[in-house]
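Write out the 3D structure for:
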Amino acid sequence: MGPCSSIRKAPDFTVWINHFKNEVYRNWLMPQAVLLGIRGHVDLEFTVERDGSVTNLRLLKSAGNPALDKAAANAIIASRFMALPSDFAPPQVTMQVSFFYGEGPQG
């Protein structure tokens, strides 16, 4: 055995993350306010359980417009995520995501 034999390979989240992004984008419906020129961004935090279900969804930063906040939260709630990778040991993962409406990540 070589010197690297005891190093464990990190779980591969590539397929999981791609599915996550596709689900969120599919379920992220633009509110009328965006079409009227309202801008802003929403930061959310939530936990994904081993089976892919979402718990503990909370608003970290409001866009200042309830319709934008609700559309972002609904994108997460309506999505069906895959179970976490089998080689990922923890029973859950906590994630933070930002939704940008008419502005870039720097504001």
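The first strand starts at residue 40 and ends at 49.
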